[in-house]
Design a protein that fits this description.
Largest sheet: 9 strands, mixed
Strand content: 35-45%
Helix content: 25-40%
Order of helices and strands: HEEEHEEHHEHHHEEEHEEEEHHHHEE
Structural class: alpha/beta
Length: 375
């Protein structure tokens, strides 16, 4: 779901006053309050496309009507510096970046490399280190012209969408600070959420895989559950689990996940133990649950989760040769000396993984359907 709340002009004023100081305050009408920045790689060089918020007039006296309207401003240049200079020349007011909800990088920029721009962001004091960073496959103008459900700006809509997915355990947040930390680490691999336009709405389409600041691949959202299980704090999902002569819808959450590294004779091994709480929501045609059905659902669910986790690990080792799943952090803490003396991504591709999934299935007391156990 897109945006659920509206940022008012008064909030932008408050942020502006806090950052500049009351003695040096600048009226909101004297700033271009930017809520989203889309950075693209062009034939000539680079482009910036900005969403700028301004308060609507509520009456003839010019008082704020409590909402905002948005305009789009675009600039281009052969370098980032030239693109920014072009932006400043076109803007009728000084640009304020402290209210930016999201920094959007096009996939063209992602595949050409984002490291230079990320370090540029670091040196730009106005950006918050916790600002979200995502990739998009959409044209910048098309993206910023999408209308959100509650008439908020696209920046707020994207932020709300990702926040909702994180809160429901179906994604994870990536900030500017996270990217800077990854680029400074020995691993340098990370994932960024990718947003696309689907049925005239902005939606999460998957995750872009980065190595040393350059995109090297894409994981569609349908194949991303394993990565979310490993990277999200409290992953949750619904599964349609087949059993003999039917299927059952089951909601799962991870009660606990243990990742234990070991290192012997130059070989790296990870033991992954996942403890899953599963709750039966309903069965096909509302059939009562027998002991055998209970057993089949549990076994099939374990197989499904195991396969997603194994496929995810295999892809990181064999397809991308890149530890974007952050196993290096666990190994580094356990074996700091060995870690310092190895080229991690090379060793990671040879690491062994043992995955176990243990499911505790509850088949009674659900809200949607309370099955009867037949013996």
């Amino acid at each position: 779901m897109l945006g659920k709340s509206i940022k008012t002009a008064s909030l932008a004023i408050a942020v502006l006053l806090l950052t500049t100081g009351c003695w040096d305050s600048v009226d909101i009408e004297d700033k271009d309050i930017t809520t989203i920045v889309v950075v693209d790689k062009t034939v000539q060089g680079y482009s910036f496309t900005l969403e700028i918020a301004s308060p609507k007039s509520g009456n003839a006296g010019g008082e704020s009507g409590g909402s905002e309207e948005y305009t789009i401003l675009k600039s281009e240049g052969s370098t980032y510096v030239e693109a920014r200079e072009d932006l400043d020349r076109k803007a009728d007011k000084p640009i304020y970046l402290g209210a930016v909800d999201s920094v959007i990088l096009t996939d063209k920029l992602a595949y050409s490399g984002i490291e230079e721009y990320v370090y540029r962001l670091r040196e730009t004091g106005e950006y918050r280190k916790m600002v979200g960073v995502v990739v998009t496959t959409a044209c910048p103008e098309d993206l910023l012209n999408v209308k959100s459900e509650h008439n908020t700006g696209v920046g707020m809509a994207i932020e709300d969408t990702l926040k909702s997915l994180v809160n429901t355990g179906q994604s994870f947040h990536v900030s500017l600070g996270d990217i800077l930390e990854s680029l400074a680490s020995p691993c340098k691999c990370f994932l960024l959420p990718c947003m696309a336009i689907s049925d005239k709405e902005i939606a999460l389409s998957g995750y872009s895989v980065f190595d040393c600041g350059t995109c090297i691949g894409f994981i569609p959202v349908k194949k991303s559950k394993g990565a979310i299980f490993l990277k999200a704090k409290y992953p949750k999902w619904d599964y349609v689990v087949p059993y003999e002569n039917g299927s059952a819808t089951v909601g799962i959450s991870f009660r606990k996940k243990d990742i234990k590294p070991s290192y012997s004779d130059g070989k790296i091994r990870f033991d992954l133990d996942f403890y899953v709480d599963a709750k039966l929501r309903y069965t096909q045609n509302g059939k009562p649950v027998t002991d055998e059905m209970d057993r089949q659902i549990k076994v099939e669910l374990q197989k499904m989760i195991y396969k997603e986790l194994k496929d995810t690990v295999d892809a990181s080792q064999q397809e991308y040769n890149c530890d974007y799943l952050d196993f290096f952090n666990v190994f580094r803490i356990a074996y700091p000396v060995a870690f310092r003396n190895m080229e991690w991504n090379q060793e990671y591709t040879k690491a062994e993984f043992a995955i176990q999934v243990k499911v505790d299935l509850e088949t009674t007391g659900t809200l949607d359907y309370e099955p009867r156990i037949e013996h």
